[in-house]
């Protein structure tokens, strides 16, 4: 039984399968904010994906079991979060009204189950395990990779680094597969697929297995991640939603005022580097960390070079995702003696701005997980 208390209870109410004309909404292991009063948002979703529902936010302190009982008696259940779109909409809806944490309908069960990242539990008849698998060698193998030859499945430690395959497609029968040669952990591969495509691929029938198997044989690696994983967490309403968005401990706010170069040196000497915000997901993590800063802006690992006239991340990541303040254009920087560097607004819209590197601000480092 969970005994922690939160100043907010979050639940959902089922709606009929019809379009609505108001509101927005979306969540994770815990939401990061707290409500001043009782209110709700309507979440618009495609009726072909799942039943639309409303999120309600209640300003009451209860433990998880009490919150579950309250929601079931008053509405339907504690909230289930189905996908990244819901997560982003809920974060956006709550950012100015919630200051702490909120219960959602996720709890750890007694036994683990194999399930697809996209949602739903796998069918034994569609499985393709290698002989002797899954064996949970070392008692830490909870993610699945596909072998290059024969397309057989192996359970592996989720932290191992493999290439991976994402897919796009609005429905089950029409899918487009994308193979990525660089290596990620299973969870990093899942994040990449959800941000840039739809999800890590599921392999639910012989036809899909053959398509992926054929591509894997052409590519130069022995195995790759697919979207099958094992965990014991389950939703209160017993839905098959397998979406998870655990809080990241990769980012740390340093509440010391330093110039950009001093901040860079500090991060590299004490952690890994100044943070690179190269995806929307990292921007979401960043918002939660930056709001606790003692300065109005917070340094990022973002720098402009006048010689080549472009912005770049000091960690070497590609500069594709951008979130500049309107009018603070990244092009045509003033190449004065003081170099321009990037910072994020600590509060408000929390977008990026260009500032002289000799200003002194708080800053965010990336640190090793563990």
Give your account of this protein's structure.
The chain has 370 residues and is α+β, with helices and mostly antiparallel strands. The chain has three domains: 9-104, no CATH class; 109-235, no CATH class; 251-366, Mannose-Binding Protein A, subunit A (Mannose-Binding Protein A, Chain A). The chain contains six helices and 18 strands. The strands form four sheets. Strands 12, 13, 14, 15, 16, 17 and 18 form a seven-stranded mixed sheet that branches. A four-stranded antiparallel sheet has the order 2-3-1-4, covered by helices on one side. Strands 5-11-6-7 form a four-stranded antiparallel sheet. The relative contact order is 0.12.
Which key features would you list for this structure?
32% strand; 370 residues; disordered N terminus; 18 strands; 7-stranded mixed beta sheet; 4-stranded antiparallel beta sheet; 3 domains; Mannose-Binding Protein A, Chain A; alpha+beta; 18% helix; 6 helices
* Tally of helical runs: 6
Shape: globular
Order of helices and strands: EEEHEHEEEEEHEHEEHEHEEEEE
How much helicity do the residues have?
10-25%
What's the number of structural domains?
Answer: 3
Mean pLDDT over all positions: 75
Q: What proportion strand? A: 25-35%
Low-confidence stretches: 1-50
Straight-line N-to-C gap: 26 Å
Q: How many E-type strands?
A: 18
- As a whole number of angstroms, the C-alpha radius of gyration is 22 Å
Estimated structural class: alpha+beta
The major pleated sheet works out as: 7 strands, mixed
């Amino acid at each position: 039984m969970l005994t922690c208390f939160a100043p907010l209870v979050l639940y959902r109410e089922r709606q009929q399968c019809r379009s609505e004309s108001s509101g927005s909404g979306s969540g994770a292991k815990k939401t990061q904010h707290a409500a001043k009063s009782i209110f709700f948002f309507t979440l618009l979703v495609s009726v072909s994906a799942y039943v639309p529902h409303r999120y309600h936010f209640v300003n009451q302190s209860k433990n998880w079991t009490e919150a579950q009982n309250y929601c079931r008696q008053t509405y339907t259940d504690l909230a289930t979060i189905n996908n990244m779109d819901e997560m982003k909409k809920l974060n956006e809806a709550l950012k100015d009204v919630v200051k702490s944490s909120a219960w959602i309908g996720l709890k750890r069960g007694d036994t683990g189950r194999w399930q697809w990242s996209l949602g739903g539990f796998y069918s034994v008849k569609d499985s393709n395990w290698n002989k002797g698998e899954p064996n949970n060698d070392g008692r830490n193998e909870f993610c699945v990779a596909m072998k290059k030859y024969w397309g057989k499945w192996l359970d592996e430690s989720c932290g191992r680094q493999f290439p991976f395959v994402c897919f796009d497609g609005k429905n089950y029968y029409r899918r487009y597969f994308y193979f990525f040669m660089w290596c990620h952990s299973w969870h990093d591969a899942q994040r990449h697929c959800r941000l840039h495509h739809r999800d890590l691929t599921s392999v639910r029938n012989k036809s899909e297995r053959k398509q992926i198997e054929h591509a894997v044989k052409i590519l130069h690696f022995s195995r790759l991640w697919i979207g099958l994983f094992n965990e014991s967490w389950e939703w209160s309403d017993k839905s098959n939603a397998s979406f998870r968005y655990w809080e990241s401990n990769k980012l740390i706010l340093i509440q010391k005022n330093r110039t950009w170069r001093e901040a860079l040196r500090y991060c590299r000497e004490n952690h890994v580097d100044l943070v690179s915000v190269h995806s929307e997901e990292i921007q979401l993590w960043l918002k939660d960390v930056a709001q606790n800063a003692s300065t109005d802006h917070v340094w990022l690992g973002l720098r402009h070079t006048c010689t080549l006239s472009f912005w770049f991340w000091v960690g070497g990541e590609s500069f594709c995702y951008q979130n500049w303040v309107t009018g603070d254009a990244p092009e045509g920087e003033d190449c004065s003696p003081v170099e321009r560097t990037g910072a994020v607004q600590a509060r408000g819209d929390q977008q990026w701005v260009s500032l002289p590197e000799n200003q002194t601000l708080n800053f965010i480092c990336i640190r090793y997980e563990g």
